[in-house]
Amino acid sequence: MGLRARLAHLAKTGDVPVFVVVGGGYRSAVHRLRLVEGISIVASPRHASVLLIAGALTNDATGTVSHVHDQMAGPRVTVAWGHPEPSVIPVQTTVNGDVTEVATTIRRLFHDVLSGAVAPEQPLLPDVDAVEWRGVGPYGHGGAGMTGGTPYGRPLALRAPARDNLELDQLPVTVGPWFTGFPPGLALRISLQGDVAQAVEVAPTNLIQAGPAGLFTRALSEPTPIRDLEMARARHHIEWMADTLEIAGVDRLAVRADRIAGMISPGEVDPVERLVKAVRRSLLRLMTLRNVGVLPGEIDLAGLGPVVRATGVADDRRREEQAYRDLGFEPVTHSGGDAWARFSQRAAEAVQALDLAGRAGDTRAFGNGEVEAPDGLHRMGEPDPANRLVSILETVLIGSEWGDLVTTIQSLDIDMETVSVGTPAP
Amino acid sequence: MGGIGAALVVFLAALVAIGVAQWVWAVTGERDLTVPERVPFAGGVEPEFHAWNRFHIRYYAMALLFLAFDMEMVFMYPWAVVFVKEGLLALIEMLMFILILIVGMVYAWREKSFEWA
Predict the structure, then answer these.
(1) A95, A226: one domain
(2) Are residues A103 and A219 in the same domain?
(3) What is the number of structural domains in chain A?
(4) A107 in the same domain as A240
(5) Residue A398's CATH number
(6) How many beta-carbon contacts under 8 Å exist across A and B?
């Protein structure tokens, strides 16, 4: 056996590194995929061999997904999961089954590519620099500026005054829409001075196709069992906690949260309470969430669910539902309005939702054009709360350090599935 | 084994290591990175500006303060010798010296020198 064959054999015994582009209706499914043994979901395509397109994307996503595809280290292969044909980029295979089926397919394809049974995918984008890097000298060296010339057609950072009136370098960067620290589909144009965001603009985006109508959308028009609504709410909040813990680097607790989200049952609050205790014992609170992402008082937060309730305001549509009042429902609130308050708020709401689901029996609620969803108040015919959250990002994020910026966006729980910002550039 | 023999062994070992590294690279290295592979991952968008930019080292004031207090420690070694002979007078002089330094630190604090971001 040659060296290459030995290395390929060694690679087959390890986890399959997968980078996921999450489309409409598949956020929860990807959480379940994280728990499958032998699959490792990675944060950058540079570490991945398999690109998984989970859920539906619009045709506008072709350019950015192609770019992600070409940034994977070879040998690379692409799998679509629940993504309608034709896919936004060519794929090796499409799976429409459950988590087990997609995991089996991914592992089989990975092994086939390593053993040579399936040819690895070729790059989709041309292998040419936009502009050759060439200075003024005979060997392409020298010229004006720090590097001489314009490196690969990309100008160097701009100059702009910093907060102490010094003229300093300011680097405009676009991050997203598939950056794992941001909600899938969100792209921001950020002007960075060091690691401080001096200007933030939401880039035009309309990349995610909305999945099938969820439980809370159906509850707008038909009375829905409280038990189902509260179980869905608890699962949503626990999965959000898993994402937050993963971004904060507490992977062990993130996996634990995903496990809990997959096995919760009505009235069973102990696992969630134990998870929250474990988080409180970690340094997460002091190091990354406290005093981060405090929302300015002038922003109207009414109807933004846990975000407004984490500022101490008991704004919850469930209070007006007789069925909830009969269960003795009172909104939970927290004070502070920072990322830690929002974490505590969602954790407390997950516990409350499981308790309500355990006591609700067959009672139903809503169906009158309004519903209190996990991300806030949804009204028939009006934009979802995510649209308002995206519109306040620019105000909230300016002046944040990079790490705090990521934490703040995560703490707001934005789902880009129903958000469309401007028209993306062709 | 003499000194020259030991050096020769190290030299040969280095040559073998280089040879092995070259062989592994020749066997496993496929090709140069393509243009998209060379670009840093930022979420699927091509960067418009080159990432080479200068940072403001905001901790420089704190670094200077650290140096000042570090030097203060250096002064304390000879002072300890003098203190044995002079007693209370030397103690008062050192306290005055430290007080002046603390005033400087309070001033830096007021000027927000300890805020890095």
Answers:
(1) no
(2) no
(3) 2
(4) no
(5) 1.10.645.10
(6) 117
Cβ contacts of A45 on chain B, cutoff 8 Å: 41
Residue A139 lies in a domain: no
Contact: A175, B43; criterion CB under 8 Å:
yes
Residue of B nearest to A131 (CA): B35
Domain positions in chain B: 60-110
Q: Which of B42, B53, B58 sits opposite A175 (nearest CB)?
A: B42
Residue type, A151: P
Is A230 contained in some domain? yes
Q: In this model, does residue A29 exceed pLDDT 70?
A: yes
Give me the interface pTM, i.e. the ipTM. 0.81
Q: How far apart are CA A369 and CA A317, in angstroms?
A: 12
Structure-token match 């997904």, residue found:
A65
Q: How confident is the model at residue A85 (pLDDT cuts 50, 70, 90)?
A: confident
Q: What would the two tokens of residue A196 be? A: 């401080």
The pLDDT of A289-298, averaged and rounded, is 88
- Half-sphere exposure of A323 toward its Cβ, with a 13 Å CA cutoff? 19
Point out the residue among B28, B30, B37 whose CB comes nearest to the CB of A70.
B37
Q: What is the pLDDT of residues A241-258, one digit of tens each?
A: 999 999 988 889 999 999
Contact yes or no for A159/A146 (Cβ under 8 A): no
For residue A90, give its domain range: 3-115
Domain-ending residue, one of A115, A140, A167: A115
Q: Do A70 and B34 touch (CB under 8 A)?
A: yes
Contact by Cβ (8 Å): A394, A202: yes
Relative to beta strand A93-95, strand A77-81 is parallel
CB-based contact B35 A125, cutoff 8 Å: yes
Nearest to B34 among A123, A162, A177 (CB): A123
Domain finish residue from A100, A115, A130: A115
**Mean pLDDT along residues A263-282:** 93
Residue A160 has pLDDT above 90, yes or no: no
